[in-house]
């Protein structure tokens, strides 16, 4: 009869509802476990790191940080100092670095200052280049620390180092560098991914690398990647084009800097 429920249809409906409920339960379990999340699990950001109405603008961050970003040249023995814009034929490795303290320590990439040669730092366009001494080279992280005499570098403006544990995908990311020798150029993007791995100059795999879509070009290497407050969250090291670039995480930077300072103290004590 048309007024009576069809037993077959009722059984099918019951099975479909049960299946949907089971699928939803399984999906909830996977989501809770982070099975669909590529970002490494991190604790919630503290209140001090969340976005606030009084957060500085991009322009404010740039104006505050730019004085701590420098141009670095490294030329092998017998190569004359560069007199104009960088070229592939001048034999001089050119990149970016940033000041980390009042003692004259500057962080950059190892591949910029690799090998014997003369390293110079320029603190602003039109300034004379200041000779620097390489304190630490670490090919396994593509990081290096050089040092200038503070008496010869009155423009020391250290940048604050951030905390890798507080970086999140989607955070604003600002890169300041010297692409093609164009001093202190700014590019802006976001943190695209965390926990990436890239290959260092010596073949070692660098872990926990920060990926960003901020535009990077030759000459940006060694420059800082900053968060929305102007703290360093990484050191730019490689660009792949099409909005993909990588930065060595700031916690790795801190370790290499500590090793550099320890070696200096050891030499002084000896």
Description:
The termini are far apart. The chain has helices spanning 7-33, 58-65, 250-269, and strands at 69-75, 93-99, 105-108, 118-122, 130-138, 143-148, 172-177, 185-199, 205-212, 224-226, 232-241, 244-249. The chain has 270 residues and is of the alpha+beta class. It is globular and about 50 Å long. 20% of the residues lie in helices and 32% in strands. The strands form two sheets. It has a six-stranded antiparallel beta barrel. A six-stranded antiparallel β-barrel has the order 7-8-9-12-11-10.
Topology readout:
Blueprint: H1 7-33, H2 58-65, E1 69-75, E2 93-99, E3 105-108, E4 118-122, E5 130-138, E6 143-148, E7 172-177, E8 185-199, E9 205-212, E10 224-226, E11 232-241, E12 244-249, H3 250-269
Short description:
The protein is α+β, with helices and mostly antiparallel strands and 270 residues long. It has helices spanning 7-33, 58-65, 250-269, and strands spanning 69-75, 93-99, 105-108, 118-122, 130-138, 143-148, 172-177, 185-199, 205-212, 224-226, 232-241, 244-249.
What profile does the largest beta sheet have?
A: 6 strands, antiparallel, barrel
- Report the total helices: 3
The strand count comes to 12
| CA gyration radius, whole angstroms | 25 Å
Principal-axes shape call: globular
Assess the beta-strand content as a share of residues. 25-35%
**Which sequence of strands runs across the widest sheet?**
1-2-3-6-5-4
Cα separation of the termini: 103 Å
Instruction: Please estimate the helix content.
Output: 10-25%
Quote the average pLDDT. 84
Low-confidence stretches: 1-5, 12-17, 19-37, 46-50
> Based on helices, strands and strand pairing, what is the structural class?
alpha+beta
Helix-strand topology string? HHEEEEEEEEEEEEH
């Amino acid at each position: 009869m048309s007024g009576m429920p069809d037993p077959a249809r009722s059984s099918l409906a019951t099975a479909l509802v049960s299946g949907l409920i089971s699928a939803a339960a399984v999906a909830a379990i996977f989501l809770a476990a982070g099975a669909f999340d590529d970002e490494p699990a991190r604790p919630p950001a503290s209140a001090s790191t969340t976005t606030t109405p009084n957060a500085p603008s991009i322009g404010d961050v740039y104006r505050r940080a730019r004085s701590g970003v420098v141009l670095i040249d490294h030329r092998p023995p017998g190569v004359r100092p560069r007199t104009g814009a960088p070229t592939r034929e001048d034999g001089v490795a050119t990149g970016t670095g940033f000041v980390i303290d009042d003692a004259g320590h500057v962080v950059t990439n190892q591949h910029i200052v690799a090998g014997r040669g003369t390293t110079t730092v320029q603190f602003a366009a039109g300034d004379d280049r200041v000779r620097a001494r390489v304190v630490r080279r670490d090919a396994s992280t593509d990081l290096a620390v050089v040092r200038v005499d503070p008496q010869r570098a009155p423009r020391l403006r250290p940048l604050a180092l951030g905390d890798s544990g507080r970086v999140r995908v989607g955070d604003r990311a600002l890169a300041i560098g010297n692409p093609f020798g164009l001093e202190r150029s700014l590019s802006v993007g976001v943190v695209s991914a965390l926990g990436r791995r890239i290959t260092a100059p010596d073949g070692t795999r660098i872990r926990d690398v920060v990926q960003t879509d901020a535009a990077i070009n030759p000459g940006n290497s060694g420059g800082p990647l900053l968060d929305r407050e102007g703290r360093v969250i990484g050191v730019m090291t490689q660009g792949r084009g099409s909005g993909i670039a990588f930065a060595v995480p700031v916690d790795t930077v801190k370790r290499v800097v500590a090793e550099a300072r320890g070696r200096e103290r050891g030499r002084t004590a000896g």
